[in-house]
Design goal:
elongated, alpha+beta, 5-stranded mixed beta barrel, 4-stranded antiparallel β-sheet, 16 strands, 579 residues
Length: 579
């Protein structure tokens, strides 16, 4: 008789504390709802198909000296870098995918940082550190003035830019030269950018030595270069190999340079971030080099520190434009800082593109299209109508077949809906989750998964009642069997969602993520809400008494007579016992 008493005691213990589980899930629901309102994000973020946005098509450009550069490997690499850049800005659900042989399509939803992301999409972010040979004002050099020497060594008695006489022969730029950049002192960069001036032409120019054809072509290009307009700045350093000298404009267009071959590249940068210079309060970009990059940087800064201005400067060239040209006072190796006319956004933008690397190809914006949410809104409305119809059919089925148990199922669906909605709203600003049409489909599918869990449990309870047990023991005995079935079913659903999320891209990931999230919530709701509520309802007269509308009427279920323990009685026999 000890075993039956232990069984009843276990059942009683299992029924005595359903309030704890209910309190736990109710606290979680209140906390999530409060967090949603406190964050100000009371609705889930919407994807581009629902909220609208911008669709950009980028076309890969031929690379000089690399006829086979446009290939699938480089296109996939570029798409991955663009996606990381945009997501690094916190833009929700940007879609980046290749199209055809040489196109990349980028869909940026309307919302925070979307314009900033659009500006970074096609930025190649090819970063090079080049030694400065010559610097001059950004306007074209007037005819009749001496061209600067591409070697960076002006003729004695001449300045580095216009040929004006100077007091000595140290190649110090005159007032006409614009030295854009910062001085490097102990790793900090200080402003040395004077205003450009159009004066200072030489009255007695000295004829330069006859240059070789390549040098003459570079001098001619430098003299004719006009950095005051955007087209001139864009074409200055275009299609130039890193191993070749080149001309370049400052990003502001107020200076132009002749630069030597690149000695450090962006691939040598390990990380970058925007920060505020503690000395002057200006925004800068801090860079840390890789081990190999640190050695290269130490070598170039050590050599430049021994030169005279402007040959003691190195230009930081980003996509063909000089963003900064600091001069060097001592050799540096571990890190560097880029400073200039930065604000917080421009500093963080540059750090972002440097952190995620340069694109292996250069791209040109082919089309920019504004996507409206009208079509997506119509599809969303149709999807919601379909979901409402499906939910109504589920409710009709539950009420007609399970009757009073349908009330417990509806409460559980409501709890699952509250948890799903608040989490989707909070995950928007937290991880950039955005609700798109496939994600809505995943949420609708989850209704069936959750309802299936209730049905499994209800049927197990009914099976116990059919065996002749009363409701309260039936609720407890049915739970272990139902729990195993529910866990196995939800595990399979979650595994399918996880695999789908890993092997797919774009909008399908939204479906997989929502399906996986709601599957996890199904387990939480069934364990912490449905089971405790069922335990509490089993104590009420309506359910425990087997009311016809409770869904647990023993007569309607064809229950057997109650199980009772009795001694076994041997049936009488007509034949005598054997001796």
């Amino acid at each position: 008789m000890a075993a039956p008493k232990k069984s009843r005691g276990a059942a009683k213990g299992g029924q005595s504390k359903p309030g704890r589980s209910l309190a736990l899930i109710l606290i979680a629901m209140v906390a999530l709802t409060g967090g949603m309102f406190l964050s100000g994000q009371t609705t889930p973020r919407l994807g581009i198909d629902l909220a609208g946005g911008t669709s950009i098509t980028l076309k890969a450009q031929p690379q000089p000296g690399k006829p086979n550069a446009i290939n699938q490997t480089n296109m996939d690499t570029a798409a991955g870098i663009i996606e990381r850049r945009v997501n690094g800005l916190g833009v929700s659900e940007a879609e980046v995918q290749t199209e055809g042989r040489d196109n990349i399509v980028v869909n940026i939803p309307k919302g925070t940082n979307s314009q900033q992301a659009r500006e970074q999409v096609g930025t190649t972010a090819q970063l090079y550190f080049r030694p400065v040979l010559t610097v001059a004002a950004g306007a074209p050099t007037p005819q009749g003035t001496a061209s600067p020497s591409p070697s960076g060594s002006p003729k004695p008695g001449k300045s580095a830019d216009t040929g004006a006489k100077t007091p000595d022969s140290t190649a110090t730029p005159s007032a006409t030269a614009t030295t854009q950049g910062r001085a490097v002192t102990g790793g900090l960069l200080k402003d040395t950018t004077p205003s450009p001036n159009a004066s200072g032409t030489s009255k007695e120019p000295t004829a330069p030595a006859a240059p070789d054809p390549a040098t003459a072509a570079l001098e001619k290009k430098f003299s004719a270069l006009d950095c005051s307009n955007r087209a001139g700045r864009a074409s200055a350093g275009a299609n130039v190999q890193p191993t070749e000298p080149t001309v370049a404009c400052s990003s502001e267009g107020d200076a132009k340079y002749i630069l030597g071959p690149a000695e450090v590249s962006g691939t040598d940068v390990d990380s970058a971030k925007g920060a505020i210079n503690q000395q002057d309060g200006q925004w800068i970009v801090q860079m840390e080099f890789t081990k190999g990059g640190a050695k290269k940087f130490q070598k170039i800064t050590g050599r430049l520190a021994q030169q005279q201005s402007p040959q003691n400067q190195f230009a930081i060239v980003l996509d063909g434009e000089v963003v900064s040209a600091p001069y060097v006072r001592t050799a540096l190796s571990a890190n560097a800082e880029i400073s200039g006319s930065f604000n917080q956004q421009s500093a963080e933008d540059l750090a972002n593109v440097l952190s995620y690397g340069a694109l292996p190809l250069s791209f040109k914006e082919q089309t920019v299209t504004t996507v409206t949410a009208a079509l997506g809104g119509e599809q969303l409305q149709a999807g919601l109508i379909a979901g409402a119809i499906g939910l109504a059919l589920v409710i009709i089925y539950l009420v007609s077949y399970y009757r009073g148990l349908a009330f417990i199922a509806l409460l559980s669906l409501l709890a699952s809906g509250i948890l799903s909605y608040t989490l989707m709203a909070l995950l928007g600003p937290a991880i950039g989750f955005a609700l798109n049409l496939p994600a809505v489909c995943g949420a609708i599918v989850a209704i069936g998964i959750t309802a299936d869990s209730f049905i499994v449990y209800f049927e197990r309870i009914r099976d116990e009642i059919r065996e002749g047990r009363t409701l309260r023991p039936a609720v407890e005995r049915a739970w272990p069997r139902a729990r195993r079935t529910i866990l196995v079913s939800d595990f399979v659903s979650f595994l399918a969602a996880a695999v789908l999320f890993v092997v797919t891209v774009g909008k399908v990931q939204g479906f997989a993520f929502t399906l996986g999230l709601t599957t996890v919530l199904d387990v939480v709701v069934v364990f912490l809400f449905t089971k405790p509520v069922m335990t509490m309802m089993a104590r009420t007269k309506f359910f425990a008494g087997g009311h016809p509308w409770s869904g647990l009427d023993p007569k309607r279920l064809g229950a057997k007579p109650p199980l009772r323990r009795s001694r076994r009685v041997n049936a009488p026999t007509d034949h005598p016992k054997e001796a």
